Amino acid sequence: MKQDMIVILDLGSTENTVVAREIRDMGVYSEIHPHDITPEELNGLDNVKGIILNGGENRVVDGVAVDVSPALYDLGYPVIAIDHPTAKCAQKLDALPDEATLKKFVFDECKAEPNWNMKNFIADQVELVKRQVGDRKVLLALSGGVDSSVVAALLLKAIGQQLVCVHVNHGLMRKNESESVVEVFQNQLHANLIYVDATERFLGKLEGVKDPEEKRKIIGGEFIRVFEEEARKLDGIDFLGQGTIYPDIIESGTKTAKMVKSHHNVGGLPEDLQFELVEPLKQLFKDEVRACGIELGLPPHMVYRQPFPGPGLGVRCLGAITRDRLEAVRESDAILREEFEKAGLDKKVWQYFTVVPDFKSVGMKNHARCFEYMVIIRAINTIDAMTASIEKVDWDVLEKITNRILAEVENVNRVCYDMSPKPPATIEFE
Ligand code: XMP
Fold it and tell me: What sequence ranges are listed for the domain GMPS ATP-PPase (predicted)?
């Protein structure tokens, strides 16, 4: 990494990422490290220009105040402490600094250069990946999600045909999603892409399975088996590419931060596959991953794609999956996305989708009684997906979507809008 860096030492504050983000937004690279980093480890980091000790409410863990090694103060870096009254540096703030104070520290005292940008980041990573991989090969599970797509584009730029991408279509993708992965990566970027249509295999395994957890387990487990089978067919693969991003690392818990969730990616691959990992995005926040994707030339629809659960439409076709209801979810979801885009809501709403429950209700079509499925629309806003509020979608937009679904989607006679925030409801239904 050739770019100047401000190191934030994590004393348990929940605001570490806020400070790191602010510094990166000033064009200076910033990383969060554990408070008990040794002076040797700190000196081993590239281009450190200054240190921020970030205290906060969690600074006392199990009754013991956590602190940094006193030797860190003697390394010669400018140090500032936020909400850490016992810090042994001259500059102590009581609260998070305002932009001007932070800028003064970063540029005047640390003399950091604003050289953090996507062009430099990509150039750095291309060089690092080339060095790590040499003339060997990298395998990548390319789901078509933002992270795996951006990793694929970056690795392609670094090592070209030494990258082998595997796209497993589990039959639970949204409309045209697998087609788009093939179009972009195989036809436009000429990546070495293995496309596996495993629809029948997944739907076969899922037949009659009602329990949401059981469904998730089958989809996750089967995904790994299909991927492993493809990997074993290939010769000479030494590396596994992963779309790990910075929040995955932070949320896995540094030593002082409370653990939010364990970090897992394609994880669960059998150990005897013995891959070394290549994770070129592991320093990026989500919006930086998107900026990286755009810089690498990926289409905006791929880069600004809304979050989509690993088990795909499988958890939106409620209960035991049937082909008719799966089709109803896929088609209604496509209509919802099209209409949200037309109304400009795709840029405003965090996540929106449809689900189809496994029961029917009575209705009337062509003057005759019908007994058909229901589509439920859900549109939510959130910052971290831990809590969520509903989007108050304009009535006319909802009416148009409803009319289109009723007219265009087979086996559906009713459309509802989900008004439930999280909690008590979760974002997904299963
Ligand atoms: P819940 O339903 O727990 O969802 O409120 C929170 C967010 O996580 C997404 N989600 C998943 N993402 N794999 C994923 O990568 C999964 O298995 C999964 N399940 C839920 C969900 O879409 C929402 O954004």
Answer: 116-305
Q: Is pTM, for the whole model, over 0.85? A: yes
- Residue 252 labeled ligand binder: no
Number of domains in the chain: 3
Is the same domain home to 357 and 291? no
The parent domain of residue 86 ranges over 5-109
Interval 63-85 mean pLDDT = 88
In whole angstroms, what separates CA 305 from the centre of its chain? 10
Cα–Cα nearest to 30, from 44, 11, 40, 45? 45
386 CA → ligand 1 middle, Å: 10
Q: What is the pLDDT of residues 245-265, one digit of tens each?
A: 988 877 665 544 444 333 344
Among 118-132, 154-168, 242-256, which stretch is predicted with the lowest mean pLDDT? 242-256
The residues, ordered by sequence, that sit 6+ positions from 90 with a Cβ below 8 Å of its Cβ are none
pLDDT tens readout for residues 338-361: 999 999 999 999 999 999 999 999
- Tell me, yes or no, whether 59 and 131 share the same domain: no
Using a pLDDT cut of 90, give the percent of the chain over it.
79
Dihedral angle computed from the Cα positions of residues 114, 115, 117 and 123, in that order, rounded to the nearest 10 degrees: -170
178 is in an annotated binding site: no
CA distance 302 to 177: 9
Q: Are residues 145 and 282 in the same domain?
A: yes
Inter-axis angle of helices 286-295 and 118-133, to 10 degrees? 80
Would the annotation count 148 as a binding residue?
A: yes
Q: How many CB atoms lie within 10 A of CB 270?
A: 10
- Does the pLDDT of residue 65 top 80, yes or no? no
